[in-house]
Design goal:
The chain contains five helices and no strands. It is mainly α. It has a single domain, classed as Ferritin (Up-down Bundle). The structure holds MU-OXO-diiron.
């Protein structure tokens, strides 16, 4: 049976992952509205990835005999100043999520919950990728300064992204 403090914190993290999914869905609709379907596709993939993260935490909690509490999901923003502003928001948000995961690791260590500590290692590695992919896009967009030609080239590139769920046994 999982420790009550850990259970509470994992429930909050399920909510944080589902908020991330909702935030990226909002960004996808922003890009649809801007006529940038490739960026929208990238955000739909982000949405699926975050839903996967939320479900991974949910299944873990169930496996450990913990009750899942589905908390209210905040309303995400709907408007941004530019594509660059959206990606800067993604990057900042992922850094925030990394700090939440690190906090969970600290708690797991403090209460000597080895199983949760092990489970969290997958998320620690995942955050490295999440931050890196957002940072790469921010760098590209800063270089082109939202000029239409290169922006459409990046849009075409992002249209090819497909979300593949990681192996459930990982
Ligand atoms: Fe679930 Fe993007 O962190």
């Amino acid at each position: 049976m999982i420790d009550e403090r850990m259970r509470t914190e994992i429930n909050k993290q399920i909510n944080a992952e589902l908020y991330s999914a909702y935030l990226y869905l909002s960004m996808a609709t922003y890009f649809e509205d801007q006529g940038l379907p490739g960026f929208a596709n990238w955000m739909y993939c982000q949405n699926q990835e975050e839903t996967f993260h939320g479900m991974k935490f949910l299944h873990y909690l169930v496996e450990r005999g913990g009750r899942v509490d589905l908390l209210a999901i905040d309303e995400p923003p709907r408007e941004w100043a530019s594509p660059l502003a959206v990606l800067e928001h993604v990057y900042e948000h992922e850094q925030h999520v990394t700090s939440l995961i690190n906090n969970l690791v600290d708690i797991a260590e403090e209460i000597k919950d080895r199983a949760t500590f092990n489970e969290l290692q997958w998320f620690v590695e995942e955050q490295v990728e999440e931050e890196a992919s957002a940072e790469t896009l921010v760098t590209k967009l800063r270089m082109i300064k939202d000029t239409p030609g290169p922006l459409l080239m990046i849009d075409n590139e992002l249209a090819t992204r497909v979300f593949t769920p990681p192996d459930a046994s990982e």
